[in-house]
Write a structure and sequence with these properties.
Elements lengths: L2 H14 L9 H9 L14 H7 L3 E13 L7 H7 L6 E14 L5 E4 L1 H4 L4 E7 L5 E10 L4 E6 L22 E6 L7 E12 L10 E4 L11 E3 L5 E8 L10 E5 H12 L11 E5 L2 H7 L7 E6 L4 H5 L6 E5 L2 E2 L3 H11 L4 E8 L2 E8 L11 E3 L9 E5 L2 H6 L8 E6 L4 H4 L7 E5 L2 E2 L3 H8 L5 E8 L2 E8 L1
Antiparallel strand pairs: 1-2, 1-4, 2-3, 3-6, 4-5, 5-6, 7-8, 7-10, 8-9, 9-12, 10-11, 11-12, 13-14, 14-15, 15-16, 15-17, 17-18, 19-20, 20-21, 21-22, 22-23, 22-24, 24-25
Length: 477
């Protein structure tokens, strides 16, 4: 058989597949009626235009302009000189920084969801929203979560009757489903691209412990961030967030935050509340091949319980160290982030049903989802004074705080926030940093840190644990 004849047979087989008789089981027949491949070459000429007309008016451009104070001196950004001369060192000048992204209106009142990295600026920041119908409005930030990379804005002005997209259930997505990405790539104007869902529950690329992503091959480029990923019903199933690329352009690997998580933030912002994530009261680690072999498991999947906190929800529900969580509410979980995602989207006040493997046997556990206990009055404090930590907020490392910042250490105090423009920010302190020692004195509590910083020093020596590293800061007093 010649190669040409073999090729023609393959083509004929593909074209004729839709007319060849095939017997379906009842389950296969029901699925085929819901989601089917194009039955003929002519059917591929169908258009996405009706879906675009429904969804595009609710996708907006987000313009951010920030006025940032800078200094012309070559030493202006040196922490040593700024410590002595403050922010007035060098000749001051003002620089305007502009950025462009996308957003999605999710209710009639003009609430817009986008990515935090789209609206992140510095100094005096102004946000402008441009609708597809060319109307423009100012907007203000209602809520934002840097770790989840989700921000909620509110359009100021207008008639309170904005076009909006309805949320769809991102858990109902399947690999291979058709999707459209709508946004403003490279600032060229609103653009629609099409593709499929390439993968689900991608967890390896996120920063937050509750981040999972939808992967798609619909073209996503710089400027698409914060834009809509919609399904064939024209509903929102994701917020386009990032791409994998070595060139800066789309190579067919894009990632979107699932709508079920975005909806949690949008609903909370509309009610004037901050999103509270359920507290597990346990330390989880992703399954590895070595752990799986040690536990006698045949799959490298799931989240291993490595530590339990006394009186925490996990311990009260009956979880034990060494348990492997493989399923939450009927959905398989591949690692710890997938577990946290399921609990966050389920919400406080609900009950999560876990399937765990213990001694090679599956066990079902019902765990009520509760908020973490609030820190006491003296568990967290804002620091101020003539020292390197001026402008930082620190907290005792309570179990809930250790969960939030994914800390293995319980010794020291942790930085929970750093004020913009503060001395602490100048010296590079970050949320999650553990202050272990000040001037060689070990620090165990917030009160001890305050006392150690109370007196002026000729030299400050601060030991900081950041991840697996220990950093030593030395600054003249």
């Amino acid at each position: 058989m010649t190669m040409k004849k073999w090729f023609l047979i393959c083509v004929a087989a593909v074209i004729g597949a839709s007319v060849a008789p095939k017997v379906f089981s009842p389950a296969e027949d029901a699925l085929a009626q819901e989601k089917i491949a194009p039955p003929s070459r002519e059917s591929i000429q169908y258009s996405y235009a009706p879906i675009v007309k429904k969804a595009a008016p609710a996708v907006v451009n987000v313009y951010v302009r920030s006025r940032v104070q800078t200094f012309d001196s070559p030493f202006a950004n040196d922490p040593f000189f700024r410590h002595f001369f403050g922010n007035n060192f060098g000749r001051p000048s003002e620089r305007v920084m502009s950025s462009l992204g996308s957003g999605v209106i999710v209710n009639r009142e003009g609430f817009v969801v986008t990515n935090t990295h789209v609206i992140k600026g510095g100094g005096d920041t102004a946000i402008r929203i441009a609708l597809a119908d060319k109307r423009e409005f100012d907007a203000k930030v209602i809520a934002q979560d840097d770790k989840a990379d989700i921000a909620v804005l509110k359009i100021e002005g207008g008639d309170g009757n904005f076009p909006f997209l309805q949320f769809d259930d991102s858990d109902a997505l399947e690999v291979g489903d058709l999707v459209l990405a709508i946004g403003n790539p490279f600032g060229v104007g609103q653009t629609v691209t099409s593709g499929i869902v390439s993968a689900l529950s991608r967890t390896e690329i996120g920063q937050s412990d509750s981040q999972v992503f939808i992967q798609t091959d619909a073209a996503i480029n710089p400027g698409n961030s914060g834009g809509a990923l919609v399904d064939m019903s024209g509903r929102l199933i994701g917020i386009n967030t990032m791409i994998y690329s070595q060139s800066g352009g789309s190579v067919g690997i894009g990632f979107a935050i699932p709508s079920n998580l975005v909806r949690v933030y949008a609903d909370s912002a509309a009610l004037g509340r901050k999103v509270e994530k359920p507290w597990l009261g346990a330390k989880l680690e992703a399954m590895s091949r070595d752990i799986a072999e040690g536990l006698g498991l045949d799959r490298v999947s799931g989240a291993v319980v490595t530590r339990l906190y006394d009186k925490g929800p996990a311990a009260a529900a009956g979880l034990e160290a060494g348990d492997v969580i493989t399923n939450v509410d009927g959905v398989d979980v591949v690692d710890a982030r997938a577990v946290y995602y399921r609990m966050t989207t389920k919400g406080i006040g609900q009950t999560a049903r876990l399937t765990v493997i213990r001694h090679n046997k599956p066990i079902d556990i019902a765990m009520p989802l509760v908020a973490a206990p609030k820190p006491g009055k003296n568990d967290a404090k804002n620091l101020s004074g003539n020292h390197p930590l001026d402008g930082a907020r620190i907290s005792n490392i309570l179990p809930s705080v250790a969960d939030e910042y994914d800390l293995d250490d319980t010794d020291g105090v942790v930085v929970t926030s750093v004020r913009d423009g503060s001395t602490a920010q100048t010296f590079g302190f970050q949320p999650g940093d553990i202050i272990a020692a000040i001037n060689k004195d070990k620090i165990a509590t917030v009160d001890e840190a305050e006392r150690a910083l109370a007196n002026r020093r000729q030299l400050w020596q601060i030991s900081v644990k950041r991840g697996n590293r220990v950093l030593q800061l030395q600054v003249p007093g």
